Amino acid sequence: MADNGLASLGVEGASAAAHALSLPADAYGNDPRLEVMWAMKAFNHAEVYFNLISSVDPKFLKLTKLDDKIYSTFRETFRELDIKLLKADDLKSDKAKERWRPFCNQFEGLVEDFNYGTLLRLDCEKDYTEENTIFATRVQFFAVEIARNREGLNNVVFKAKSGRS
């Protein structure tokens, strides 16, 4: 699937796609081409992130300038959330959305594209697959993945890919 990413658009196509993605959402209707570009961008982000945690010990990763703030606020707000194996309802149920909305909104203006659509793995021990992936906001992704990295849950991926035990 990576071969069908932005690189397949060529320099001009990728430049046009980047420009299109920078325009405000109200500049578009339900343009299926735009949805494909967003999906490709989200997939490329997921692929880069998974390659990163596969090749660098996740406990040393810093995903944003605000990792400490995101992590402490996340764990204060979602102390009981099982981030090893998320369920769709943990992010998408009405009750969950009521809790996530204020958490996410406090990072508006602090985390670039805080509400940008991103792919998140449900089971942190597995790769991105259709069954193991959910659509989340960028700040939800950062909160969960920073916590997984700090709590050692992404070590399984790193050890599997690096051949360490």
Automatic annotation (TrEMBL):
Any single Pfam family the record assigns to this protein: PBDC1
Domain of life, per lineage: Eukaryota
Domain spans labelled Polysaccharide biosynthesis: 34-158
InterPro entries cross-referenced by the UniProt entry: PBDC1-like_dom_sf, PBDC1_metazoa/fungi, Polysacc_synth_dom
GO cellular component terms, A-Z: cytoplasm
Name of the protein described by the UniProt record: Polysaccharide biosynthesis domain-containing protein
Gene name of this polypeptide: pbdc1
